[in-house]
User: What shape does this take?
Amino acid sequence: MSGRCAVAARRSVGAKMGFFERWLTLWVGLCIVVGILLGHLLPGPFRQVGSLEVARVNLPVAFLIWLMIVPMLLKIDFRALHRVKEHWRGVGVTLFINWGVKPFSMALLGWLFIAHLFRPWLPEGQIDSYIAGLIILAAAPCTAMVFVWSHLTEGEPHFTLSQVALNDLIMVVAFAPIVGLLLGLSAITVPWETLLLSVGLFIVVPVIVAQGWRFKLLASGGQEALDATLKVLHPVSLTALLATLVLLFGFQGEQILAQPMVILLLAVPILIQVYFNAGLSYWLNRKLGEAHNVAAPSALIGASNFFELAVATAIGLFGFESGAALATVVGVLVEVPVMLSVVRIAIASRDWYQRGAAHG
Assistant: This one.
């Protein structure tokens, strides 16, 4: 979150932050529990915070995401963006996973688990709606949070930024046709306000702010000033990540406790889809001889979701109380803890990956 992975961060900011990072899974679990309990015990305040939205984008959550990603974007040197073409294999793999595999694999998993295996335990009238929500979720690749996951794995920041920007451009033209094809609908109403506002809030504005800040730091104090600022911002980013978890689970605290079985069953195909797509992307990059610092963010981008767009689309098509809306919300709930587990796998398997890539 300081622009280095957890291992490098421990070297640079000392043992205390190393302790927090080593036990990040524990803090995540505690924040999930605290969020659910607070959302149940104090539903009023959470409803008020949850209502602070513009085009289905929650402003407090957007602010916390800013605190997470701006420090990471400080590390990006735009003069080095031209080197991304060296990683054309990673770009190709990520695009293939995001647009050629992910939405279709989720449609298959939804049909298998929701329409068949779990059907006896789900409300019959919501089966098709649940599947629709899962497909909508899978058809929207993640934007902002990918910077968090990429930096935790010491991913190549210029590759991550360029891949996210490319996905956003493709999403403008491909999201509606893919969703319409898989749902069998002739007309999909894309929530353009949500899509454009999210791209602006989570990509364009943070990049401008970070690059302006970077220029000022380098001009006034050089690399030392930049490194010192990143060191100070490191715990801020971690705190923002945990606070985001409390808010997201607090918003849905009552719903989680009201229908835990439905949420658990909906989470199963989402979990399988995340690990399948991340694993396939990681394996393909290894086979093609791509560097680990590209393969890790490629796998993470291929597995994560643009949940603001998914939730807005599901509500627009099927209504706020629909099974589709609930399915996309479940995607929101599992996103952070599951992606952190993928981060851990990518870090733990780095040596294995590099041995194979070296012979690829």
The radius of gyration is 20 Å. The chain has one domain: 6-358. The first strand starts at residue 53 and ends at 54. The chain has 16 helices and two strands.
